[in-house]
Amino acid sequence: MTKRYIRNAAELVTCRGAAPKKGAEMADIGLIKNGGVLIHDDEIFAVGTTEELDKLIDDSYEIVDATGKTVMPGFVDSHTHFIFGGYRAEEFGWRLKGDTYMSIMQRGGGINATVVPTKEATLEELVEVGRERLNRMLEFGVTTVEGKSGYGMDCDTEIKQLRAMKELDRTHPVDVVTTFLGPHSVLPQWKGKEREFIDYLLTEVMPKVKEENLAEFADIFCEKNVFEIEDSEYYLTKAKEMGFKLKVHADEIVSLGGAELASRTGAVSADHLLKASDEGIKQMAQSGVISTLLPATAFCLKEPFAPARKMIEAGCAVALASDLNPGSCFTNNIPLLVALGCIHMGMSIEEVITALTINGAAAVGRADTIGSIEKGKKADIIMLKYPSIHFMPYHTAINLVETVIKNGRTVYHKEW
Ligand code: NIG
Ligand code: FE
User: Fold this and answer.
1) DSSP secondary structure string, 234-298?
2) Which ligand is nearest to the CA of 325?
3) Which of 106, 184, 272 has most ligand 1 atoms within 8 Å of CB, for mutation?
4) Given this model, what pLDDT does residue 259 score?
5) What is this structure's pTM?
6) Low-confidence ranges of the chain (pLDDT < 70)
7) Within 6 Å (CB) of ligand 1, which residues are found?
């Protein structure tokens, strides 16, 4: 057995306790000063102060000195679209000149513009670009990521994207949780026939996805002029019957009732929520749907941020994620999320940490095994260069991650 002892962390953030953390619970990150963690193989064996743990160990432990460092759970980036072909840099320029995301989409750009290069890419090419992107995520301390299909919207390409993610899950240290997002947009041949398209996905594509066990979650872009509430509800209800857990791209551009839809269909999370209504917020809090906020997308689209403070006050469980994708938000920068959460969304650093760890883990259905530093959980742990969590917003948008431990093994270390 491999035994490791992370010793003398200036601050050890545990995020222990029941998950997800809702409302006021989000501020409690179970911080231990001069903390330590014992790791046996890939699992956390004990957590406490260095004084306590010093008494439990013997010579068989490898010591990892965390003097002057912050130690915390690896980040869980619970919403990304990281597998795609091609780029859409020109769209960013158009948006800077005043075009909107939806107007570009309506004239054939946007998501549909990523379909051709994704169709053309081979499985191996998607795996290769995916591997590079996972390497970049790992440097930011991400140890688990959710990834969606949705750039094929036909059987072969959706399955190719999901297979690429499964391959990466097997061969890359970062764990990948997969989501089927067939209804991501409406291709020209399906315009006006959205219900038929959804039926095609439900009968021709999703049974194959299930058969090969390629996705745990099913998601939909529920939005005005994309998939309206009725079609989205139909899709989500059927997907649930097929055994998929649910996620919803909800209330991003227009206040459509996506948060309410996620609540009544029993979704695990509703994501974006820039325009969530008060009623939607109330229903998410009551139903326990996780409110996954994607502030880097709002930032890139120059939209007002989601009302995180209001949601936390209403008792919602808030998660933060990058939304890395080729269009609205081509960044996986976790320190940027920290900065936006703290500076622009009224969240405390403790709430931001909860949102990026244990609540992110809950949003991918993994809160029982990851997202916190507790006995029995996977040893997915990161060490920051500085001695306190307060350096995270203070050293603004700077990556402070020095060491990443995944399943008990050091998989990344930065020399400064
Ligand atoms: O979450 N809004 C829909 N889907 C993605 C954007 C995907 C793209 O533009 O390629 C999102 O922002
Ligand atoms: Fe998204």
Assistant:
1) HHHHHHHHTT-EEEEEESSSS--SHHHHHHHTT-SEEEE-TT--HHHHHHHHHHT-EEEE-HHHH
2) 1
3) 184
4) 98
5) 0.98
6) none
7) 81, 110-111, 114, 221, 249, 252, 297, 323, 325-329
